Amino acid sequence: MKKRFCAVFFAVFLIISSTACTNPWAPEEEPDHTPSYTIGNWDNVGSTDDASLASPEEEKEPLFTEEQYNLFDPAPGTGYVRSDLTNEWITSEAAKYRPLAVMVPNNVNSLPHYNLSKAGVLYECNVEYEITRLVPIFDDWAGLERIGNIRSARDYLVIAAMEWDPLILHIGQIWYADEILEREEVHNINGLTYDKAYYRVSTERRDYDQSAYSNGYAVKNAATALKYPLEHTSIYKPGHFSFAPKGLPTTLTDVYGNLSATYVSLEKAYPIDQPYFIYDEEAGLYNRYEYGIPHTDGATGEQLSFANIIIQSTYREYRPDGAYLIYRMHDTTSDGYFITRGRAVHITWKKEGTYGITRYYDDNGDEIVLNQGKTMICIIEKGDGIVMQ
């Protein structure tokens, strides 16, 4: 009877206990387990003497055959390969380039963003004042005419992006990020030291700080000038995610403890932009809203939508100066939720090494299998409120 009651309850909605910081600059109490800081890291985790620059894990065996993938989704022509970000078809020319990661501000004055709808993976995470940064990961970026806008980097977001072996666009950074951005293998294009990759648009009514953009042509020229390889380096590990074929989609209905998730709100976790998602059953996608309106792409007018949502909970605290945050996102494990096709399941995640791949597992210990398409990864403080119904 108890199990039956719980199932009915969760089918209607899920409210996970929320915590909120009442003072965004100085917490009232010191944490019980304050880490020992180095510049940008805990206890030298991810320092330059870390032997694991790339993931130490063995290459995964594919779950499905090429015939299963192609049965309901044949290549549109010759010269196409599947994207490692989405499993969708992209040209082999686009695939030979490394992905592009961009540090995008998400306060209301930064809207609209340009070409975020073209990103295969999109991260969101709080920074100071509980304003979020977005980090889109693009694999077919060379032809994009306007990317951004673009602002400063945070070290934990650089660590998240680095598992894709990207070129990184940013304009400045907090000083905690200096150490990781100065590493030889972190190929970042900083607008404060190399401004030829960026331009500003003054014709829109927005703050100057929100007016910087780039494009694919400028990124390629900048990478060449800075002697960064455009093709993948030794850090890169293919097969980042596991994807289901179009004809054999992941539904989660057979996973014990699955929950209804046609509406997903992170308004308590991200109190400024208050994002939420509404599931479009016909399209099989989650449409994103923020600031009370659809989150649309300024370049295309398209609303951002995702086949998969991953909510990744982790430990967070304020740094010793009481101003900037840090999220423990590497060499650690915690929990979260995987959401797709109107259902959700509890997961755990694990990331080994500074640039190791983050792996996500259901409660049976099986790695999750995403549906083909774009993925949103929401990084939140453990205990922050989530609403699903």
Descriptive overview:
This protein has 389 residues and is mostly beta strands. It has two domains: 32-56 and 246-388, YerB-like fold (3-Layer(bba) Sandwich); 79-225, YerB-like fold (3-Layer(bba) Sandwich), CATH 3.50.90.10. It is 11% helix and 29% strand. The chain has helices spanning 2-12, 66-71, 92-95, 155-162, 178-181, 216-225, and strands spanning 14-15, 37-38, 41-42, 80-82, 89-91, 100-102, 104-105, 121-126, 132-138, 147-148, 167-170, 188-190, 199-200, 212-214, 243-244, 259-260, 263-265, 276-280, 285-290, 293-294, 305-306, 308-314, 316-318, 325-327, 332-340, 343-351, 359-362, 370-371, 375-381, 387-388. The strands form seven sheets. Strands 6, 7, 8, 9, 11, 12, 16, 22, 25, 26, 27 and 29 form a twelve-stranded mixed β-sheet that branches. Strands 1, 17, 18, 19, 20, 21 and 30 form a seven-stranded antiparallel β-sheet that branches. It has a three-stranded antiparallel β-sheet with strand order 10-14-13. A hairpin with a 7-residue loop joins strand 26 (343-351) and strand 27 (359-362). The longest helix has 11 residues, at 2-12. It is globular. It starts with a helix and ends with a strand. Mean pLDDT is 86; it is low at 1-56.
